[in-house]
Amino acid sequence: MAKVPTVKVSAETWDGLRLRFAGSIFYDTELTLLGQNAGMSWPFRGADETPGKYLEYEFEDLLTVPGLAGHKARVKLLIAILEETLAFDDPFSDMVDTIKAETDSDSGPEKLLSRLDIPQKFPSSLIHFGPESKRLLFDERLETIGQIIAYSQRNATQAEFPEDFKSLINYLSHRDEIGISRFVPFRVGKRGLHLAEAIGLVSRDLPDAVQYELLSQAKVPLKPAEDALRENLDQEVFKKAVSEAQSRIAVACGWFFKEEQELREKIGTTEQMERFFVVLNNPHRERVATVLARLYFGVDVESGKRGLFGSIKGIFGQ
């Protein structure tokens, strides 16, 4: 990890950070991820370890928070991570200026994307946006990631874009690999787009109850709270969610056709499936992705063997 930059630990610095972070898209992002992106290591893990957890405190109170009390170096580290993060959280027009400067000098969006090994023609239908951004893509007929970048350049001062749309442009402009991987199947640390990450994103987007029901069907042990959530799931909701997930996987397999063939050959072997999805670096998501992949290829979701039980009809009890 990089050395922690020199920062001023003071009430004035902290008050400034609290003000500047008020509307940040990173307010609820885990500090371990923000630290990793800034080349620093935050010592505590957990979904609640976010900037928001600490920014609610006045400076004097911050120094008494468990884990920080008596550890000035950790307070300094926190401030350094937050300041580095703000560099990625400029106003949208600044993000687009960054992209425009690169694309003007490097022959367009394809050059910017090529540095990340992202094809300019990667389908926008495989980008994991929310409803507002999806509507924007439909209305403006933005069918590829290259068209999205070009559109953001042309309209930066004329339109209000959805937050997730702005976030992706921001991440691309700063080559923030972790941020990019939230929206497209990008392989952090190695670059490029891949099928394993594509199915992983589909898995991530499923409601928790649907994920647990899929794992239950595959005989994966669940915790009591997870099992309770699954048992309260409406089966029509489950069927619709799984059907939509399968449709997205079909599109992904069409794009990643070579990797689709590789996955098809491994589908019946648990060990090989684990190796295929281990790049997700999230055991729960790896298991859900495995079940979805086996459903897609029509094999038993538990054993990977060919049979009716593994088909979508089988898992729906039809």
Order of helices and strands: HHHHHHHHHHHHHHHHHHH
Structural class: mainly alpha
Distance between the termini: 53 Å
Strand content: under 5%
Quick check: average pLDDT? Answer: 83
What characterizes the major β-sheet? Answer: none
Count of helix runs: 19
Uncertain residue segments: 103-108, 308-314
- Overall shape: it is globular
Q: Can you give the helix content as a percent range?
A: 55-70%
Count of individual beta strands: 0
User: For the CA atoms, what is the radius of gyration?
Assistant: 22 Å
- Total domain modules: 3
Can you put this structure into words, describing what you see?
By secondary structure, the protein is an all-alpha fold. The chain folds into three domains: 11-86, no CATH class; 92-180, no CATH class; 195-315, no CATH class. The protein is 58% helix and 0% strand. It is built from 19 helices and no strands. Helix 6 (92-105) crosses helix 10. It is globular. 33% of the residues are buried. The model is unreliable at 103-108 and 308-314 (pLDDT under 50).
Task: Write out key terms for the chains shown.
318 residues; 3 domains; 58% helix; mainly alpha; single chain
